[in-house]
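Write out this protein's structure.
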Amino acid sequence: MVSAPPAVQAPFSVPARARAGKRLSIVAPCFNEQEVLDLFFARIEEELAKLGLDYEIVCVNDGSRDHTLAVLLAHHQRNPRIKVINLARNFGKETALSAGLDVTTGDMVVPIDVDLQDPPELIGQFVEAWEAGADVAYGVRVDRRADTPLKRFTAQGFYRAFNRLSDVDLPYNAGDFRLMDKRVVEVLRKLPERNRFMKGLFAWVGFRQEAIPYARPERAAGTSSWRYWKLWNFALDGITSFSTAPIRVWSYVGLIAGVLAVGVAGLLVLRTLLFGRDVPGYPSLMVVILMSFGLQMLAIGSLGEYVARIYQEVKGRPLYVVMDRYGFDDAPPFAGGPVA
């Protein structure tokens, strides 16, 4: 059991908002989710009907290889407020989420996973926090028993490492599930980076934020596409996107190694002068050489991670390519995303 972090309070009084006449946009990235979509729409439409808000549900098909697109289109025909963006290939969840945020028109926007591990019933509490003055109301998973012990352990380790290395304070156990005021979304749309770590970007923009605790349930159907290798790369992208510590640390490692090398060299010279003989030590010499080589490779690897991200950014390619759009009045764009 993990305790929820305290809500971020505004330093001054905030006038209350009214939901009357407002619109709520739901953004749902989808990748091979055909088994759970019927359950998802049944629950979220039931919840949205209680809120007294106009709404739209923007579903982004991120290159699914099953019948996800066909199921989405069937629901679009049933309910025109369900809109579908069909990307030309799989660009990844972070990019699919950005594609959905780019087309929302609501006064409030809620990113949500369709596997129902983000319970739609929490949206009502998000809206209440928005009415009270919060610009962002984010869900905090205080009970993650649905996840494996290894996943809980690695997730906790990532949050600790990220907050130690980065200047951005990432709330513990907070995912993408949140409500954002439209002005927060407008800022997110202007961020130009191609390597997007959305949890970090949500925290980076600031504004008045409030934490809403909830218990994370199991997936309603289907299987997760997130494997540990993919999660590792995701964590690496997050840290390198918001911290230069992994590359800066090698300056200190080099300084310490240089001081040690000078010290050892002085001892060897002194011993030779005093005892008049060389110091034998082929094995120890090889250990030092191999250790130095390993450290150099780690340093080059860290540098390479940042150079690779620079390479991705300077090419200036769009974040995503849209193949089809359903439920939108304008013609479908070929490509989208912020341009530097």
